[in-house]
Amino acid sequence: MLIIPAIDLRGGHVVRLFKGRASDEKVYFDDPAAVAESFVKQGAKRIHIVNLDGAFGEDDSLNKEALKNIRKVAPAILEVGGGIRSFSGASECLKSGADKIIIGSLYFDDRQAFGEIVSEFPGKVMLSADVGEGKIRIHGWKDSSPLSLKEFLTAVSNRNIKEIVVTQIERDGTLEGINAAFYSQLPAITDIDIIASGGVSCMEDIAALSKTGVAGVIIGKALYENKLDLREAIKKYGSN
Predict the structure, then answer these.
(1) Catalytic sites, residue numbers
(2) Which CATH number fits domain 2-237: 3.40.30.10, 3.20.20.70, 3.40.50.1400, 3.50.50.60?
(3) Fewer CB within a 10 Å sphere, N or C end of the chain?
(4) pLDDT at site 24
């Protein structure tokens, strides 16, 4: 299972939100590149980066600069999402250092542009499925799409997508623990690799996820609050 540490960027800082709410923000570090470098030294071969300002439709210039700085020091696969809502945005993100880009809202807003991105950058496009109140949430989790997670997974099965990040919004940033039963049902619905996100609080959560059939797990707040040791998690459960 891929063990993927997360760096959420806002105003160029490393932050975590509570259930995706911009008003519930905690700043952890001012140097994202140093954080990424630390993750690599602990054994991470892949890092999940979220441009929160981009997701919220705000000025994200500082986050873009942070991505470039991370790229300089972190010899890892960088998967980057947040605010990629056009072909030019996808191209710019990849040129700035992303190895993979994560798309969410664009799939619903502009299916043609989404198709063009997948066609132009084969193997570099991931999808995000952020689940709240039974539906996929979009536009920085502010709006609800018409699709449930199962409907979404079925709809994108022929889109040449290899990986989907599935986040339970109500658990994101809460340290409440993961819902293993929720994730265990997903591999039977789709052949696309599922990467779990939201609520990981301890090593026991990772152990439970390793039995569900998901391909990977994203860990954020548990690392920043010293609830979980990244090096140990990678050594014990990682396939990085």
Answers:
(1) 8, 130
(2) 3.20.20.70
(3) C
(4) 81
